[in-house]
Specification:
six-stranded parallel sheet, Rossmann fold, globular, single chain, N-(1-d-carboxylethyl)-l-norvaline Dehydrogenase, domain 2, 18 helices, alpha/beta
Length: 438
């Protein structure tokens, strides 16, 4: 089966590489000459565990190619996936679909036989029909079907998610398109992965609904942590007790400084806008977004209060900058909201992150210093902030850390450590929902 993937961002690159691992002949297309040249040499522009090995293997076997020539790639394709970015549009939160529509128009003028055009990008309800209209208008003689196949990849475990997914959701309009999509996903089907077929609109909405619901769980437990601090409850126990109920489940009930990344922030905003497009008001998702912003702001207050109300001149070591571990993605990371006000108020910030420093340097204040070694970053620090729960930070040599620091404040924004353990090690320990009441 011949597959073309339009876009070599996170979703396009992971999906294209994994389809080639399934046995398809895949060409990933992008307009960025420099990126395509690097990919042909096996240089991966993102950090995703296992991706480099799959790309290298399938480049060598010939199952995977990279190109800037969509027309040539599309002529023989059975399926063409649109996997371009859909960022939040400035000013209103709508998903910006200009790249999707541009890709659709170019595809329309490139196909020469029956082809299934598949939306892989995260798009609002009704986008597949708009793509169909664009192709029909641009090329009235085109023989094609449109499908929707949303991705459910978690950064840091995307390869596993693609190869062994919880489910595959596919929206189609014709039996012919359904059979081609079923054939493409034969590998996960063989391991009993549910392949769920529905109509185009339902597939599009499933993606947004899933992300919004998970974001809701995060905001719910974060808001509950504020009450836990005031009442003396332990948010870990609360979350565990809730999670034991099979109707609720334990996943996404971990407190933290707020969600970030490429999906939850933009998808919740886009879903709110979709409701408004249909003259409906979604109060739940609006509250989720508001609580997430409040949580980040409350972390600034927590840090400031731990330093006696004034961070000016204080040296703060920050462990972790990315929105989650096992990725270099800084999009909407809590660090982008929390650290700039501290720097502006005169704090001296020294940061460490295993993979995110290069991106962080372009997004965070220039005054922040970056260090390749954890304990070098902590040298002379008045306080440490554990911002992202990378494995490197979960088993720190606490005695060495204490000896390196000038002060003894440890702010654990991921609740990685136990209060008794940290207090016994000589730290003034602050966490979320189970310690000091701020």
């Amino acid at each position: 089966m011949k597959v073309v993937m339009v876009g070599t961002g996170y979703v396009g690159l992971v999906s294209g590489a994994c389809f080639s691992e399934f046995g398809a002949e895949v060409i990933c297309v992008d307009k960025d000459d420099k990126k395509i040249k690097a990919l042909k040499e096996g240089k991966i522009p993102i950090y995703e565990p296992g991706l480099d090995e799959i790309v290298e293997k399938n480049l060598k076997s010939g199952h995977l190619e990279f190109s800037t020539d969509l027309k040539s790639a599309a002529e023989k394709a059975d399926l063409i996936f649109i996997a371009v970015g859909t960022p939040s549009r400035r000013g209103d939160g709508h998903a910006d679909l200009k790249y999707v529509f541009a890709a659709a128009e170019e595809i329309a003028n490139s196909i020469s036989k029956y082809t299934v055009i598949v939306n892989k990008s995260t798009v609002p309800v009704g986008t597949a029909q708009k793509v169909k209209d664009i192709i029909e208008k641009s090329n009235p003689n085109a023989d094609f079907d449109v499908a929707s196949n949303p991705e459910f990849l978690r950064e840091g475990s995307a390869i596993e998610d693609f190869m062994r997914p919880d489910r595959v959701v596919i929206g189609v309009e014709s039996k012919k398109a359904k059979e081609i999509m079923k054939s493409l996903y034969q590998t996960p089907s063989l391991i009993k992965t549910p392949i769920f077929f529905t109509n185009l609109e339902s597939a599009e909405l499933i993606k947004y609904a899933s992300n919004a619901f998970l974001a809701t769980k995060i905001s719910f437990i974060n808001e509950l942590s504020m009450l836990s601090e005031k009442t003396g409850a332990d948010i870990h126990s609360v979350a565990e007790g809730m999670g034991l109920d099979n109707r609720i489940g334990a996943k996404f009930l971990q407190v933290g400084p707020g969600y970030g990344g490429s999906c939850f922030p933009k998808d919740t905003l886009a879903l709110i806008q979709t409701f408004e497009d249909f003259e409906l008001d979604n109060k739940i998702i609006k509250s989720v977004v508001e609580i997430n912003s409040m949580q980040k702001e409350s972390m600034i207050k927590k840090i400031r209060n731990s330093l006696g109300g004034d961070e000016s001149g204080k040296v703060i070591a920050v462990f972790g900058l990315t929105f989650k571990p096992e990725t270099d993605d800084m999009r909407d990371a809590p660090s982008l909201t929390i650290l700039p006000p501290l720097v502006e108020a005169g704090a001296i910030v020294r940061a460490h992150d295993p993979e995110g420093i290069e991106q962080a340097q372009t997004l965070l204040p220039k005054a922040i210093e970056y260090f390749p070694d954890i304990f070098e970053a902590a040298d002379g620090a008045d306080a440490v902030i554990l911002m992202t729960e990378w494995n490197q930070y979960k088993d720190l040599d606490l005695q060495l850390l204490k000896n390196k620091m000038k002060g003894k404040i440890f702010l654990d924004l991921r609740n990685v450590y136990e209060p008794n353990e940290m207090n016994n090690a000589g730290f003034d320990y602050y966490c979320i929902g189970r310690g000091h009441n701020f």
